[in-house]
Give the backbone structure.
Amino acid sequence: MSSETAAATSVSTHILDTSVGRPAEGVALTLSVRSGSGGAWTSHGAGKTDADGRCKDLPALPAGTTHVRIAFETEAYFVSHQHSENQQAEEQQDAPALRDSGAFFPEVAITFAVKPGEHYHVPLLLNPFGYSVYRGS
């Protein structure tokens, strides 16, 4: 198969906030690539999750990519989410809600190996004190 007819290697992701049972909207992420285990990481794309927690518009990977890293900026999401919850609690109770304003995992970076011509869907199951990731379809 020539390089002109070879299928592109692609990546997509989505995030489910398991602490609330809903998609995590507005999480910024960056996509980096490298060729070979010792290769230097190169920034290749960025995006944000949509209302369904998905980021579908990441660019196809360059030829020769062997490893991909997706870095999710989780701290801003949790700080924003906690602010919304705190505001709702204050309105309901007329008292400030006592919550930690930080995030235990300010960033989640997932690194995985890829093969040419395949699609990689990488879902992130996220909560304030843990996460899980797997290769989806």
About this structure: The longest helix spans residues 74-93. The helical segments are 74-93. The CA atoms of residues 44 and 78 lie 25 Å apart. The two ends are 24 Å apart (CA to CA).
